[in-house]
Amino acid sequence: MKTISEIRREGIEALSKALGPVDMARFLSSFEIGSGDYTRDRHTWLPSDPDEIISNIQKRQEAQNVESK
Known about the structure:
Elements: H1 4-19, H2 21-29, H3 38-41, H4 50-68
């Protein structure tokens, strides 16, 4: 199993090869570390009822279909 350092190094090499050094740097700088604890806080903004989640997804899909017509 690779260490996280090896994975990071290989990822940087792959990005550099695919994007070039300048665009690789731009891509990496586009990420923010963020704050908070997703695992702890998700219950405050995610519905706990699976039916509600499915309903929300269906409503968004329907809205997108109306917009694309």
